[in-house]
Design brief:
heterotrimer, A mainly beta (208), B alpha+beta (216), C alpha+beta (280), A: 208 residues, mainly beta, Rieske Iron-sulfur Protein, TATA-Binding Protein, 2 domains, six-stranded antiparallel β-sheet, four-stranded antiparallel β-sheet, 2 helices, 13% helix, 41% strand, C: 280 residues, alpha+beta, N-terminal domain of TfIIb, Naphthalene 1,2-dioxygenase Alpha Subunit, Chain A, domain 1, eight-stranded antiparallel β-sheet, globular
Chain lengths: 208, 216, 280
């Protein structure tokens, strides 16, 4: 598979001091925002005993593992091992960092050496992320106005009016996730209902 | 003192322990050997609660066997602001969520008992119903966020939030991940950050709230 | 194909009291279906190929699907008349049975996973302790382990520096000895007996032999279940699910000497059910 930028969440869902699980093409990631707002995406595995770092906790500019409290700082280097407070951890203890960029209210991830910027999604505002139990084909089949592959875009009827929507496609191990954005003039509650209805129609199509 | 017949791993018992801690009410906890002893199904326990469920709250001559009723009792006595706003719509919405919390228990709660304590039943159905309930909770909390709201009803946390919190926060114990529910995740964090919050097994302490220890 | 070394070991498969009370347990051992039940007053474990070797000890039924390489390990303390023996009950965990045992041997996680009970920041340091593989019994032992604990046991009042000894007595069973809050001349004994259902799924049976004649049984059970359920959410989120025996896969420190010895002991004895040999 060609490496490309993947949307793994919306900025609004990752405040300062929070870590969440993310994904890039089958890789599990811990995506986190430091106290000052710095965003990072790392391999979701503490090198010590394999615990998911997305279950960890953010203190200041560091992410710590929930299991033994190992502390990781900028670029994934281990800064502190609580069981040995006086020890300076060897520089070889690192978590693999991914490229992580915030743009248009969307959190994008890619391998660290990825060149260029994520695709722009202008003219729309972040709405919400939803997961689906069906595949993308079912979504496209019930809403022909949406065009595209990784970025679905089109004008759809929300509250009886045509509004621009944009759905960023993320294929996770557990299924399909869509990060939805909508036209700036659309009512967010109505747009949210439209997204839920789209999901319902697509999943029912598969069930039938 | 209020007496609570309690089991440490029960989400419903925790709901009441948490509420009591938040409003500052001390209770006398009576541990019941729910597992492996199944003491809640014993003849002795049936005299207290014929339904054989936990928790049971006893205060004087009052016996309560529904955890949401216990939330009302604790809030009314020690923290009326936890009952939610007084207008008709808000009061009804609080009741709506108290009833909805029963759906979380009947789906996510059962999936958890299946995966953890080997309860027999249709695990796929419980997980599917759990996802369906979480989708409703996620939609409601997301719409509240659009309007700047952080809690299920009103501008402050209420018994509605506490009623729904345990089974939502423990969903992974039953094999249901919260990864796909960002608004639910942020809401559970807000509850875990409340002053006087207490945890239970499966819901870890927010260590970020305590300061980094000084390194010698 | 499961190695003969694995098949010739003893594994816990049920709580004896439940089987004696007439319950029939349909379960798995090493990926094979088994049934544990009472037949004419005797506990019988039946697999696809017939009856398994059975023994009853420490509140539990133990089975060996092969030819037992040795008797079940002894816990002499279990026979002391004044001890309270507590069957804590089964808890299922989606992890390798070996990861469940390794976590039981670990103290460095106490401040973060059992916060304000078995540990608390800033008391995170793990002092040097001694680890050996005892030749006579072929067991892994860790001794002279100490750790500061805010509430070491149900009967403990306030924080104490607790002393521990750890012992791996079988591939999926370990026992710890820790400071008894009520007596200076004896240890509390806590066991973790792990039934490998498959390589990535296990039933865990914690068990205790305590000097505590005050605390109600239900509270003792609740305390130990609380501790183990705090571990469960860790165990279900370690990657990979299998325990890596390849030294390059995970990074231990001096605090992990017991875990290092356990992994070596498993590898040397060919007890690799639930283990990952090479990095995937």
């Amino acid at each position: 598979m060609t490496p490309r930028w993947t949307a793994t969440g919306l900025s609004q869902d990752l405040p300062k001091g929070v870590v969440m699980a993310g994904h890039w093409q089958g890789h599990d990631l811990a995506v986190w925002r430091s106290a000052t707002g710095r965003l990072q995406a790392w391999n979701d595995r503490c090198p010590h005993r394999g615990m998911r770092l997305s279950h960890g906790f953010v203190r200041g500019e560091t992410l710590a593992c929930i299991y033994h409290g190992w502390v990781y700082g900028a670029e994934g280097g281990c800064k502190h091992i609580p069981a040995h407070p006086a020890l300076t951890p060897p520089a070889t203890i690192t978590v693999t960092a991914f490229a992580c960029v915030e743009q248009d209210g969307v959190i994008w991830v890619a391998p660290a050496d990825m060149a260029g910027s994520p695709p722009a999604v202008s003219g729309v505002q972040p709405l919400r992320s939803v997961s689906l139990t069906c595949d993308l084909a079912a979504v496209l089949a019930v809403e022909p106005a949406l065009l595209g592959q990784d970025i679905l875009r089109g004008t759809v009827q929300i509250d009886g009016q045509g509004h621009d929507v944009c759905l960023l496609v993320q294929n996770n191990p557990a299924g399909l996730t869509l990060h939805a954005l909508c036209g700036v003039r659309a009512n967010k509650v109505a747009a949210s209902h439209w997204v839920e209805n789209l999901r319902r129609r697509a999943e029912m199509k598969v069930a039938a | 003192m209020i007496q609570l017949y309690d089991y440490v791993l029960s989400a419903s018992c925790y709901k009441v322990r948490l509420m009591a801690a938040l409003v500052g009410v001390k209770m006398d906890l009576e541990a019941v050997d729910f597992h492996p002893g199944r003491a809640h199904k014993s003849v002795e326990f049936a005299q207290l609660n014929p339904a054989g469920t936990l928790p049971v709250m006893v205060d004087g001559d009052m016996i309560l066997t529904e955890s949401t009723a216990m939330l009302v009792y604790l809030a009314k006595r020690a923290g009326p602001q936890w009952l939610g706003p007084d207008d008709a719509k808000s009061a009804a919405q609080v009741q709506q969520w108290l009833a909805f919390s029963g759906r979380l228990a009947a789906s996510l709660g059962m999936a958890r008992l299946h995966d953890m304590l080997l309860y027999k039943g249709d695990i796929d159905a419980w997980r599917a119903q759990g996802h369906a309930a979480l989708r409703e909770l996620e939609a409601a909390l997301t719409e509240r966020r659009f309007a700047g709201g952080e809690w299920l009803v009103g501008d402050t946390p209420s018994i509605a939030d506490i009623a729904c919190f345990p089974n939502a926060a423990l969903s992974q114990d039953g094999g249901v991940s919260l990864d796909a529910y960002p608004s639910v995740r942020l809401w559970t964090r807000r509850i875990r950050a409340l002053d006087r919050f207490i945890e239970m097994p499966g819901i870890h302490r927010l260590h970020e709230l305590s300061p980094t220890p000084k390194v010698a | 194909m499961i190695a003969q070394e694995v098949l010739n070991e003893w594994y816990p498969v049920a709580m004896a009291a439940q089987i004696r009370a007439g319950q029939r347990r349909v379960t798995q051992l090493l990926g094979q279906p088994i049934t544990v039940e009472l037949q004419k007053g005797a506990i019988v474990v039946t697999g696809q190929g017939g009856a398994l070797h059975v023994t009853e000890a420490y509140g539990h039924v133990w089975a060996c699907p092969g030819t037992p390489a040795h008797d079940l390990f002894p816990i002499p303390e279990a026979l002391e008349p004044c001890r309270r023996l507590v069957d804590v009950g089964v808890v299922r965990v989606k992890c390798s049975p070996l990861r469940a045992v390794e976590n039981f041997l670990d103290i460095a996680h106490f401040p973060f996973v059992h916060t304000d009970v078995l540990g608390a920041e800033p008391h995170t340091e793990v002092n040097r302790y001694e680890v050996q593989i005892r030749e006579d019994s072929d067991e892994v032992w860790a001794t002279k382990v100490t750790f500061y604990q805010p509430q070491a046991a149900k009967s403990a009042e306030g924080g104490i520096v607790t002393q521990y000894m750890y012992r791996v007595a079988a591939p999926t069973a370990a026992v710890l000895y820790k400071t008894c809050p009520n007596r200076t001349d004896a240890w509390d004994v806590i066991g973790i007996f792990v039934q490998p259902l498959t390589e990535e799924l296990c039933d865990v049976w914690p068990w205790m032999a305590l000097y505590d004649d005050v605390t109600p049984q239900a509270e003792l059970i609740a305390f130990q279940q609380m501790i183990f359920l705090q571990d469960r959410s860790i165990l279900e989120n370690q990657i990979p699910r299998l325990l890596p025996l390849d030294p390059g896969m995970e990074i231990p420190t001096q605090a992990d000497l017991t875990s290092i010895a356990y992994r070596r002991w498993l590898k040397k004895r060919g007890l690799t059910y639930g283990a990952q040999m090479v990095a995937a």
